[in-house]
Amino acid sequence: MKRNGLCSGAAGEVMKKWRSYLAEHPVDYHGDVDSMLELLYHFFTEYEPVENEELRRQFAELEHQLMSSLGETGDSCRETVESLMTIVSSVCAECERAAFMEGVKVGVRLILELTEDQSP
């Protein structure tokens, strides 16, 4: 029997059923994402929050350093620091998202290579 990746025999039938099911019940991307990869990341972050005590401590230190560096006090200083912290948080989130998606792609590529038909 010629092997076609993971989809030989019964597995091939299962894949046909999944394709049929997905054709009848399209994936709801929630309007925020453009691909299944982004949707995976969305659900990953929803159920695996990255915020922890160490991260909070580091952000508090960054905020303290920014306040000290500006040498100002009051509401205008607080607004400036909050604006900068928002930018830093956005950059961190984008880096995490990109790393997650690249990691999934590497995993998929590994599976494809491991299940490739090696017969001559």
Report on this model:
With 120 residues, the protein is mainly α. It has a domain at 50-114. The protein has helices at residues 10-24, 36-47, 53-70, 75-114. Helix 3 crosses helix 4. The protein is elongated, with a radius of gyration of 23 Å.
> What structural class do helix, strand and pairing data support?
mainly alpha
Q: Helicity range of the residues? A: over 70%
The topology string of helices and strands comes to HHHH
Q: Overall 3D geometry?
A: elongated
Number of helical stretches of at least 4 residues: 4
InterPro entries: DUF6809 (IPR049215)
Q: Topology of this protein?
A:
Blueprint: H1 10-24, H2 36-47, H3 53-70, H4 75-114
Helix pairs in contact: 3-4
Describe this protein with a few key phrases.
mainly alpha, 4 helices
Concise account of the structure shown:
The chain is mainly alpha-helical.
